[in-house]
Amino acid sequence: xxxxxxxxxxxxxxxxxxxxxxxxxxxxxxxxxxxxxxxxxxxxxxxxxxxxxxxxxxxxxxxxxxxxxxxxxxxxxxxxxxxxxxxxxxxxxxxxxxxxxxxxxxxxxxxxxxxxxxxxxxxxxxxxxxxxxxxxxxxxxxxxxxxxxxxxxxxxxxxxxxxxxxxxxxxxxxxxxxxxxxxxxxxxxxxxxxxxxxxxxxxxxxxxxxxxxxxxxxxxxxxxxxxxxxx
Length: 231
Fold this sequence. Notes:
The protein is built from 10 helices and 5 strands, in the order H-H-H-H-H-H-E-H-E-H-E-H-E-E-H. The chain is α+β, with helices and mostly antiparallel strands. The protein has 2 domains: 3-65, no CATH class; 97-230, GAF domain (Beta-Lactamase), CATH 3.30.450. The radius of gyration is 30 Å and the shape is elongated.
């Protein structure tokens, strides 16, 4: 506001100063639409009708935004409920597993059945030669684990497109089919291995999605496997 205009406002009464300013700045409410919703204008004023209409339009747009936001929150809540139910079923399947092979089978089958996973890979760290010969085991000194160094240091799930070396190590001959994946640390007090879920769809897993459920899944797998690995 110019010094000259401020001086004019000081000479006018407050209402006259406001009216004068609005007259000289007809786009004021276009630049400050949040103020329109707070105005109280009687319908009797002919010129006020257009402003009231604008106020109603602003309120309607706000309502539409709130409605869209509410729909999004409801959708997220429903998705979370479904995930919680699937994780519960997987937990029961793991509890019913009596040995190591049964736990691994329940984990893989559960992810395919309950979570529509196209591919599932497990790589557990163990120096025991007999277990290392098992397809789901790898010795900690395996050179291929160098491709997962940063992931193992951070101990956090990651989603999106994995490096070629990582996909090949995890999915072998099926690596070419993997368009996106979730990589999860199998943990129970420490990192015990890797759990990977591969998808043929490029948008199934992406870096911006939440990982709370995936972290819980990795902890659940670690707790179910640990008693059998300790033996």
